[in-house]
Structures are given as C-alpha cells and as structure tokens.
C-alpha cells in the first residue's frame, strides 16, 4: 500500500491576506474555491504546488470546528494533512481495526476521502483520500493541470506534541507504515515525502506546526518572504502560524520513492 503527501490545509483568520502571502512569496496563482466546503461553513482557496496542493481556509459563520481551532490556537494554524493512497479499502479496513473514529467520509465519481478524528490519531486532522487515477486530484479544481504553478512542491509535514513518539506510533499503526527515530524526533517515510513528529517546544499542544517545501529557486522564495516581513531567524518562513522550511534542489531528499500504477 502506497501513501503520498498530496495536500495540506491551513486555517487562517484573514483569507485574503493569506492568499496575498502565498502569491507574493511562492508565485502561486489560480486559486480554486471549492464550493464543497460550504457545508462545513467554510470558504477556501486551493493552490497548485507542482502536483501537491496548499489549501487555505477560513470560517464564514460562528460555531465551526475550524473557528474553535483558531480560537484555541489564538490565530492561524495547521488544520489537516491529506494523504493519497492506492488502496483505499485496505486503508479503511486498517482504520476500523484500530478503532479510529471517522468524522466524515465521501465517495463519488471514482474518488473520495476518509477524515479521521484528530484525538484518535494525534497531531492534526488526517484525511486518507483516493482517486481513480494516481495523477488525478479532484480537490485541485477543474483543469488544475493546465494552470501555471510555482516550481515548488510540499514534501514534508511536521506535527508537534508533548509525546512525539506516541504520536508517530499511532500514525504508523493507522497507515501500516514503519516509523523510526530521526534527528531528535520521529519519521514516517511516504512516497515522495515524509511525516515528522517532534516535541512541542512552543507548548501549544499537539498540532501541525511546519511544512517543508522543495523549490527550484529557494533564494528567490526567501527573498520575497523577507520583503513581506515573513522571514524567520532560523532561515525559514513564518506563515499562517506555521514554519515553512524552504529546501533547494541540492538538499538531501527527506524521502524514499515508491512506484505505483494508476
């Protein structure tokens, strides 16, 4: 069974400001507004980053899950990690056997998702998605392949918590993938990416705290971030309540590569 990191969702209080940062810093364009999120009382914008996707979302009404999360975190924060699998029935069977609660599920036109309760999995809301073709991505909007995209892709998601090993082992059990110690934390390798689990140094509780983005021209991205006052002292970018680590082509790939058919 293969999993890859396909989309990251981030909750923001100011959607227009968040879009402006994504477009100015990364050169993102053609945001897709998915009307399907209206049933959650949300508005969103989805950007293509190569064949991965960044989703920025905000509540449009009171008493929403995202609104409560923003209140607890006192501002913008990571919301969801979306993985694509080539064997959805096997993945769902493993979720059921592990006793993980499913908070939402959809199947339509050869694609779908399963959202897992963050308290059962740990770290953040996890969605396991499938498409009829491996290269397809319904949530990117019609014709997303024809839209220009930044020469960047999302290659890692980083969850923080008071017990990173326990969190990593829960994800490992749910996904059926091994976890291992890695640079002071824990790691699960994906197809073309990775999940990292680190100690909660900011004492904010469990959460999606950082992303790694592989860019063809990292210096240009960091320069634009500095112009918008988003550069962080550690050489990354501070955006949407998260740290965005910018990797260049010469960076050691934090991943392994598996092959899968369509």
Question: Could you name the key traits of this structure?
Answer:
262 residues, alpha/beta, 2,3-Dihydroxybiphenyl 1,2-Dioxygenase, domain 1, 2 domains, 7-stranded mixed β-sheet, 14 strands, globular, disordered C terminus, VOC_core, Glyas_Bleomycin-R_OHBP_Dase, VOC family protein, Glyoxalase-like_dom
| CATH architectural arrangement of the largest domain | Roll
Side-by-side strand order of the widest sheet: 2-3-1-4-7-6-5
User: How many independent structural domains?
Assistant: 2
CATH topology title of the largest domain = 2,3-Dihydroxybiphenyl 1,2-Dioxygenase, domain 1
CATH top-level class of the largest domain: Alpha Beta
Describe the sheet with the most strands.
Answer: 7 strands, mixed
Shape: globular
Mean of residue pLDDT? 93
How far from one another are the termini?
13 Å
* Structural category: alpha/beta
Count the strands?
14
Helix content: 10-25%
Sketch the topology as an H/E string, one letter per element: EHEEHEHEEHEEHEEEEHEE
- How many helices? The count is 6
CATH superfamily of the largest domain: 2,3-Dihydroxybiphenyl 1,2-Dioxygenase, domain 1
Task: Catalogue the unreliable spans.
Answer: 255-262
Protein name: VOC family protein
InterPro entries: Glyas_Bleomycin-R_OHBP_Dase (IPR029068), Glyoxalase-like_dom (IPR025870), VOC_core (IPR037523)
Organism: Novosphingobium tardum
Domain VOC: 4-131
């Amino acid at each position: 069974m293969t999993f890859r990191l396909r989309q990251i969702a981030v909750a923001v209080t100011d959607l227009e400001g968040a879009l402006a940062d994504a477009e100015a810093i990364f050169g993102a364009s053609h945001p897709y507004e998915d009307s399907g999120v209206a049933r959650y009382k949300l508005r969103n914008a989805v950007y293509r980053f190569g064949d991965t996707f960044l989703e920025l979302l905000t509540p449009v009404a009171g008493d929403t899950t995202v609104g409560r999360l923003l209140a607890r975190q006192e501002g913008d924060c990571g919301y969801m990690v979306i993985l694509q699998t080539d064997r959805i029935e096997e993945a769902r069977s493993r979720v059921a056997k592990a006793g993980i609660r499913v908070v939402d599920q959809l199947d339509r036109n050869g694609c779908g998702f399963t959202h897992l309760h963050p308290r059962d999995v740990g770290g953040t809301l996890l969605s396991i998605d499938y498409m009829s073709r491996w290269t397809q991505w319904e949530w990117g909007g019609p014709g997303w392949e024809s839209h220009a995209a930044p020469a960047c892709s999302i290659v890692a998601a980083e969850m923080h918590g008071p017990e990173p090993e326990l969190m990593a082992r829960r994800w490992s059990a749910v996904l059926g993938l091994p976890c291992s110690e890695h640079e002071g934390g824990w790691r699960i390798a994906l197809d073309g990416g990775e999940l990292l689990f680190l100690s909660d140094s900011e004492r904010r509780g469990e959460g999606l705290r950082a992303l790694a983005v592989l860019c063809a021209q990292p210096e240009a991205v960091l320069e634009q971030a500095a112009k918008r006052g988003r550069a962080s002292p550690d050489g990354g970018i501070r955006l949407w309540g998260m740290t965005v680590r910018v990797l260049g082509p010469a960076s050691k790939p934090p991943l392994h590569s598996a092959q899968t058919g369509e």
